[in-house]
Amino acid sequence: MPLRPPLVAFHPKGPRPPQRRKVYCPACRHGFELSRRAVTVRCPKCTAPLAFDDLQLSQRVEGAVTTMGHVVLGASSSVAARLTCGMLSSAGRFEGKATVYGTVTLEPGSRTSGELTARSLTVQRGATCDATVRITPDPGPPPAPQKRTLAQISADTPRPLHGLPRVVPRR
Ligand SMILES: [Zn+2]
Q: Is the pLDDT of residue 10 over 80?
């Protein structure tokens, strides 16, 4: 039986220091820091609107997913998509084209095929990666059209009989 961490381990009492994250504007390639809680901002340099929703995907997702936040593909996920994101961790199946302006982590049990462009890639033992991989400090501008948001993910996804795919914003 796996050990469960205590539920309170990551919620110490008292004010927490503001969490910052380094993000990247795909439109003008400007890097800047952002509060971890911020979800939509305009790039301070080129004023392009950027969404930073962190998404946890499970079940089947098709279409286009774009966020400059962290996308987590759960072990039961099966994602066939044009994925553009700030960071990607996968324990599930991905098939498609992914452009990641940060780190990709392929976890044990994950299966990845298609095309993967990222700033860095970690393939853990037990992962299957059958994708065309391009690692570069500058993944380039996002593909157009790319004004897809969280709401459009469900709109793009055929409704399975057992309900909508679970798309859980992570904070
Ligand atoms: Zn910009």
A: no
